[in-house]
Amino acid sequence: MLGMSRLSASLLLYLAIISCLVSGSRIQGVWLKMPAVVRVGSTVTLACQFDLQDTPLYAVKWYRGNYEFFRYMPTGRPPYIAFPIPGIDIDMSGSGAHQVTLRNVPLNLSGLFKCEVTADAPFFSTLQASANLTIIELGIRKPSVQVSSSIHRSRVNPLRVNCSAQQTVPPPNLTFYIDEKKVNSEYTRDFGPGLAGLEIQSPPWARNQTRSIRCEATVPGVYFISSNGVSVKYEPEPTSGGQRLLSYLACYCILLQLLITVFGVT
After folding, report:
1. What does the pLDDT average to over 218-226?
2. Helix (H) or strand (E) run with residue 7 in it
3. Domain co-membership, 43 together with 130
4. Residue whose C-alpha is closest to residue 227's, from 138, 158, 170, 162
């Protein structure tokens, strides 16, 4: 009986030691910090933060898609190694255990990047994090604005304004402004990448007043470019009631002239 008790105690102690070792070897978390969008030809740093608690680091591996392009191993001599991947130019002086720096990034490098962290012996537990990187080619051309007429007269047909911007990847968001006041999106239409329209049935300003309309192309966190302002004056045509009154007056004048001619009324 005493032997069985000692065996049970030894087993419990063994299981406790194994539990501690396993718990200590777990990676608590991996976090990837990188910009979502960058300009073509720029330098970008991808940061990989992780929590190993008291477990030594075995390796950090970086992937573009399924292809490894950089590895950091603290016990290696040297501790880092780069794998040749077309389009990836690594700045080794700016790369290490927690980050990798890429120089002169090309458009075709857009895609999924992954950081994989492995703890050291005896369990070599692994955890990874991933994120997408989009690389855009940024032009310098301003958006262009065209209006149906610089003097809007119609009370029936809406005022139409079109905006065209240089297409980028990702495409820009287009926003209209009237005298620096943002136009509600319910008045705008999206015609495709870099194209949008604005329709206003009754211009929201007084008769014979002039307003400036512009559009702005934006890729959040990367750039915004505004068009030049286009002036539009609102000079509405006379109402149909006013036109009828003028018509009646003209008929009255003609009738009066006939009476004078026929009857010699003076």
Report:
1. 81
2. helix 2-25
3. yes
4. 162
HEC string for 206-242? CCCCEEEEEEEEEECCCEEEECCCEEEEECCCCCHHH
**What are the residues whose beta carbons fall under 8 Å from the beta carbon of 250, sequence distance 6 or more?**
none
Same domain, 113 and 185: no
Question: In sequence order, which residues have a C-beta less than 8 Å from that of residue 260 and are 6 or more positions away?
Answer: 266
Q: In this structure, what token pair is assigned to residue 160?
A: 């139409």
Q: What is the pLDDT of residue 150?
A: 80
Cα end-to-end span (Å), the chain:
145
- Give the pLDDT confidence of 155-202 residue by residue, as tens digits: 667 788 999 998 877 788 999 999 888 988 888 888 888 899 988 776
Mean pLDDT score, 69-82: 92
Q: 75: domain range?
A: 28-136
Question: 207 with 111, same domain?
Answer: no
Are both 148 and 219 inside the same structural domain? yes
CA distance 89 to 68: 13
Q: How far is CA 233 from the centre of its chain?
A: 34
Is the domain of 128 the same as that of 149? Answer: no
Residue 241 corresponds to which tokens in the numbers above?
């009631």
CATH of the domain at 97: 2.60.40.10
Give 109's DSSP letter: G
Higher pLDDT, 49 or 253: 49
In whole angstroms, give the CA distance from residue 242 to residue 131: 65
pTM: predicted TM-score of the whole model, two decimal places: 0.55
Domain boundary residue, one of 109, 136, 163 = 136
